């Protein structure tokens, strides 16, 4: 968290005029690919959608109905006011979907490429990806971004693209809502198919490094937990984990001489 805060503070909010030409040139180089990415997120060229997305969106719709979103109990409320509530309730459900699909999935993946790719982070990379993530969030925002002379240049770069794509983001949720419902069996089959597709994925040294970092801090306690489970003992998991701990610790580490668990 502190590292990301330092990175954000190191990126200037306004770009000196001397760099403006280079900034616009760089945007022109990558604009085609960024627009294609944004359009792919909105399925502009597709007529079918992943069953997982359809199932989860319908789940949110059902939760909205179950919790009374869109249900009006007072018939004496003026009609114009009822219409106002309907719009707000519709926006609320759409905001749930947007948070699930955009913030929890795409923005998270864009700002954290190490989840998918075996790459190292850098300040310039983080800054560039943050611009793309912010543009994506602006495209799915209900309120039109208020931009002015003091707005960050990163948000001004794709202002025209955001204006074009914002109405299309609302249309995305409408199109998915019109599709036939997905059964729970289809949903489970889709999850199994996704899991099977990931079986052959190659390993990641970054992911391995993160796992070893976790083991260094929590491995001793985890060995103790595994040693109390009969199934884990039968598979020699406590002994295997203790071997990993001994291999990944520095020679002068406080736990570097941990004895291997033996049953």
Automatic annotation (TrEMBL):
Single Gene Ontology MF annotation: semaphorin receptor activity
Domain of life of the native organism: Eukaryota
GO cellular component: plasma membrane; semaphorin receptor complex
Protein name: Plexin_cytopl domain-containing protein
Signal sequence residues: none
Organism encoding this protein: Heterorhabditis bacteriophora (Entomopathogenic nematode worm)
Gene3D superfamilies: GTPase Activation - p120gap, domain 1 (1.10.506.10)
Keywords: Membrane, Transmembrane, Transmembrane helix
Biological process (GO), any one: regulation of cell shape
Matches recorded under InterPro entries: Plexin, Plexin_cytoplasmic_RasGAP_dom, Rho_GTPase_activation_prot
This protein's record includes keyword DNA-binding: no
Residues that span the membrane, as ranges: 69-87
Pfam families assigned to the protein according to its UniProt record, in alphabetical order: Plexin_cytopl (PF08337)
Keyword Transmembrane: yes
Residue span, Plexin cytoplasmic RasGAP domain: 5-69, 86-217
């Amino acid at each position: 968290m502190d590292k990301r805060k330092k990175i954000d503070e190191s990126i200037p909010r306004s770009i000196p005029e001397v760099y403006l030409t280079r900034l616009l040139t760089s945007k022109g180089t990558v604009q085609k690919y960024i627009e294609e990415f944004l359009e792919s997120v909105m399925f502009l060229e597709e007529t079918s959608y992943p069953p997982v997305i359809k199932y989860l969106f319908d789940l949110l719709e059902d939760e909205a109905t179950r919790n009374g979103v869109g249900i009006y109990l007072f018939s004496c409320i003026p009609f114009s006011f009822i219409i106002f509530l309907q719009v707000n309730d519709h926006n609320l459900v759409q905001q749930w979907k947007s948070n699930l699909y955009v913030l929890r999935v795409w923005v998270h993946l864009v700002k954290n490429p190490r989840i998918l790719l075996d790459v190292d982070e850098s300040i310039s990379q983080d800054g560039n990806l943050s611009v793309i993530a912010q543009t994506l969030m602006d495209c799915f925002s209900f309120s039109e971004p208020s931009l002015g002379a003091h707005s960050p240049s990163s948000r001004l770069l794709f202002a025209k693209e955001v204006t074009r794509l914002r109405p299309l983001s609302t249309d995305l949720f409408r199109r998915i809502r019109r599709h036939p419902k997905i059964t729970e069996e289809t949903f489970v089959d889709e999850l199994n198919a996704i899991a099977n597709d990931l079986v052959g994925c190659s390993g990641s040294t970054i992911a391995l490094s993160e796992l070893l970092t976790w083991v260094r801090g929590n491995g001793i306690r985890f060995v103790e937990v595994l040693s109390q489970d009969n199934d884990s003992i039968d598979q020699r998991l406590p002994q295997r984990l203790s071997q990993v701990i001994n291999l990944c610790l520095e020679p002068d580490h406080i736990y570097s001489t941990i004895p291997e668990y033996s049953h």
